[in-house]
């Protein structure tokens, strides 16, 4: 018998696998406007679009319950899905939450998780409308699906960027990644000496970035007030470089990003130094910041230039000109996407 | 320090836990018509309702890959979600599929799974529009969300049954459960003697009921042709008795089910005997048949009485009169819901 062919999944990676599986998918319903390939799927429901996004979070891969409180995990699971809806310029409205639980989890533990879920539902005004609850043979599994709506003329895809559009990012970058390093270090120290008290006060900002990210709904409202509609948008879950690659691919363009424009918080900067890490690398490749990355026509620059929380970090260029990263000393190198790999 | 309270989840069970977690959930959007508590959530999207349902399937709990081919698993994951949409009298339109994979799985294995997913999408004419693909620290996790639409006057809830409505069930019952017993027995025999060839031909019908259930979309079309609109409906995932309890609870009624009316296939009957099991118990408490259980006004009886695949098995009665099971020899006993427990 011929030996069966075996290709390891990490040879393709998450995005390669998705492309392979989604290839040639046929749609039967004209209401299906966009399927796989953006932050959310887009369905025509008549007067507006319905958008839906889903995330699967598994213990040991996406979270470590030895330092992630269940309340925060519940909050974050909702926030990251709301963030996907935000990245389409949508209004989140409903979520479903499915949960797989091993027998390690008590009713009280699940209630703590739901405290966070309910808190996020309240903050983002989304309705918890369903889900599935079942056993798991190992650890905690969370699967969240978010539904939202967006006006047909308001929707923003990854694919809408134009040559010379200005690249903007909200908030600051790399903090969630550095927060994770702190939590991992404290865990190791605790394992080595359980008498030790965690020293997290000094790192409250970056730890908060990791444990309790916010979906930037506020930015959508402010852009509307400024009468700016981004030409393309994505939320930063995999890391700036990797997510910028998604924008480039969808819009069929190249990009230029300036190192000295990357917004990095002082605490991220200083803590990166403690780990002998380059803060710019953290900003480029650290994932889970859940900020918004978007492009605007050059003519809109004046409208956003004074916004304290929107930073212009580069621009889109012809695909042939490639993906460039301009370092602080003026050298231009090729932008590399290392990003967050969950394989 | 006071000891923390710990309540085991199986003390509450799946439905008790869901009730506890969903208690007091506030909805922010008037478009959210129904949340937790039916086969699917219901959202008002203007001219019609959007319905959405989600299922989480975990290896070792919901399926055993030593006898479930990945193609069949993929097909079933879609079919059971389509079945939830069918149970609301809806038309399934889109699905998202999230997948957690341990490193045991190769690209070829995932492709086999997707073969089944694509086959089901084709059979039910649903569009695969998104999902999430990630690693899992143990085994395979599948989370499927289905979206569908239904006319506002066509939707059927679990809660619409009236006193004296006739209880109908489609197809036959207990087959999926008996099929599972066969597969488990063959697995044990194989483990004891790996040289042994599985003998499944004789059991093809019941094994097929377990491995490749169908969502009864056909019945919805036929009921429409017969101009019958059920007053309440649910799909049989947990088992007839357990799902009948859901109908009773939602409709605030009692029920009568007749043992001699239970539709049971000859192969189910004979195979149950091999295991010294009562086929009626299999029909009542075996899960995963994915048939439709519904109620119709007595005046509609004539319209369905000659339908070969719709069986009248009882009727709804006042809540105070309880839930009754009338045995073949005419005794009336209390109906008990053992159902499928995934805890």
Give the arrangement of secondary structure elements.
The structure is a homodimer of 343-residue chains.
Chain A: H1 9-22, E1 32-34, E2 41-44, E3 48-58, H2 70-86, E4 91-101, H3 107-123, E5 127-135, E6 141-151, E7 166-170, H4 175-192, H5 204-211, H6 217-225, E8 232-235, H7 240-251, E9 254-258, H8 266-274, H9 279-285, E10 292-296, H10 301-304, E11 310-317, E12 323-326, E13 332-334
Parallel strand pairs in A: 4-5, 9-12
Antiparallel strand pairs in A: 1-2, 2-3, 3-6, 4-6, 7-10, 7-11, 8-10, 9-11, 12-13
Describe this structure in words.
The structure is a homodimer of 343-residue chains. Chain A has helices spanning 9-22, 70-86, 107-123, 175-192, 204-211, 217-225, 240-251, 266-274, 279-285, 301-304, and strands at 32-34, 41-44, 48-58, 91-101, 127-135, 141-151, 166-170, 232-235, 254-258, 292-296, 310-317, 323-326, 332-334. The mean pLDDT of chain A is 93. Chain A is built from ten helices and 13 strands. By secondary structure, the first copy, chain A, is an alpha+beta fold. In chain A, the strands form two sheets. Chain A has a seven-stranded mixed sheet with strand order 8-10-7-11-9-12-13, sandwiched between helices. A six-stranded mixed sheet of chain A has the order 1-2-3-6-4-5, with helices on one face. In chain A, a hairpin with a 3-residue loop joins strand 2 and strand 3 (48-58). Helices cover 34% and strands 24% of the residues of chain A.
